[in-house]
Amino acid sequence: MPGNQLDRKEYGQDLSEDAFLYTRAAVVAAGRTVFDSVLQDPEAFAPYVTNVIWAENLLYTPDRAYKRITGEEWDRDTRYSYESYSNAEGWAD
């Protein structure tokens, strides 16, 4: 999962859970090139933090699309958690 790869200490150690989550979503929304550059260089994550570029709404897009198509709420489970600090390997000392 792309967002899970960014759930690492070098990206989010000074951010609140919500700020870190929404900022990671903004990086994913910026596209593959930006995402790959951030993975290669954590400093490329800084503009998304300092300029408070959040993409919270991106997290709810699949749920809204499902409801629009089916008329029902989507009760989904995923293999990966997008919640901040859930990637134990990325936060190991």
**H/I helix tally:** 6
The percent of residues in helical segments reads: 40-55%
Strand content: under 5%
Structure classification: mainly alpha
Estimate nothing, just give the exact number of structural domains: 1
Shape: globular
| Rg measurement, Å | 14 Å
Strand elements, count:
0
Low-confidence stretches: none
Distance between the termini: 22 Å
Q: pLDDT average, as an integer? A: 85
> What is the string of helix and strand elements?
HHHHHH
Largest sheet: none
Task: Chart the SSEs and their pairings.
Blueprint: H1 2-5, H2 9-12, H3 17-29, H4 32-40, H5 46-50, H6 61-70
Molecular structure report:
- By secondary structure, the chain is mostly helical.
- The chain has one domain (2-73).
- The chain is 48% helix and 0% strand.
- It has helices at residues 2-5, 9-12, 17-29, 32-40, 46-50, 61-70.
- The radius of gyration is 14 Å and the shape is globular.
Task: Give a short synopsis of this structure.
The longest helix has 13 residues, at 17-29. 48% of the residues lie in helices and 0% in strands.
Descriptive labels:
single chain; 6 helices; 48% helix
